[in-house]
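Usage

Read records sequentially. Each one opens with the input sequence:
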Amino acid sequence: MHQRLDGRRLNRATLARQHLLGRVDGAERRPLDVVRDVVGLQGQDPDPPYLMLWNRIEGFTVEQLTALQLDRSVVRATLFRGTLHLVATDDYLWLRPMLQPMLERWQRGAWGKTLEGVDVDELAKAAADLLDDGRLTRPRLSRALAARWPEYSPTALARSVQGLLPVVHPPPDGLWHRHGPAHVALAHTWLGRPLSPGVPPSTLVRRYLAAFGPATVKDVQAWSGLTRLREVVEAMRPYLVTFTGEHGEELFDVPDAPRPDPETPAPARLLAPLDNVVLAYADRSRLVGPDAAARVGWEAAVLIDGEVGGFWTMSQDDDAATLTADLLRSLTGDQEAELEAEAAGLLAFAAPEAGRRDVRLRIPAGRA
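and closes with the structure output:
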């Protein structure tokens, strides 16, 4: 009989692997190591990946992730679930070929109807020719493709390229506080290295389990966007350990990954928007309760004792920066003090130039 793992045991296992039970020493585990540990940082906007690393690394600075992007050690591209991620370049080279069939499905689902009648192979070739000499802003790419297919949406044409071709978004895209037109470049041109097709899907499953396990096959599929992974996991069974979840589901894991005592303390954390730790499952209940489920993915979450216990925003006005946490229930005195200290640290990181920094905790009346 498999050992049974309740939600709290799964919670602590996830937090341990995500470096959220305690920040790692930045001198021992570099930002690039942590990006690899968590198999990338979801990054539709430029700032959240920086906040994700701040949550996980003691002494992390903005300059560290900026340097990794500028020296091409990490790359920003459309990957898992058809969303933008910042991943280690070494990982991108094998991930992109593996995810290509899913990204083609993503392109058809997102833009297929709008571009009905366009030969996607011709679209891909035309885009590759335009990008062959280097990077273009997406507006320039849109205009050039629209000149070839004037009856179709320029936006749909340009965004389809992210699914059809291995393209990346090089700096200044993805840099701290950077806003402006997106840039697009062919991956092999920007990185100066060829892609690495042929890596087996078992590699991806193993990396996912090391970062997010124990987990079900459905969880791996929900995170990656890939389908038909049951047969992959079944072939890996002799090399994995298995458990039973609260509802009888079978959970898989890599043998040597941490599974801490469920009573291990979990510190307060102010997660970045779209942090994969709360999104990377078909069943998110290990970190997300029913009262938070509808808001996760749209708002930045507050972790209290390892679970989503509220959501936070930050605003800046003149010389002041304010972080407001809207909590779902009351806190103990120790939890409140810990959250206030964490919020003050985040404000110092994200708004170092502010002359005044304020933390506001809002707790609904009558919620215990």
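Summary fields computed downstream for this record:
- Residues 201-253 form one domain.
- The chain has three domains: 3-191, 201-253, 288-362.
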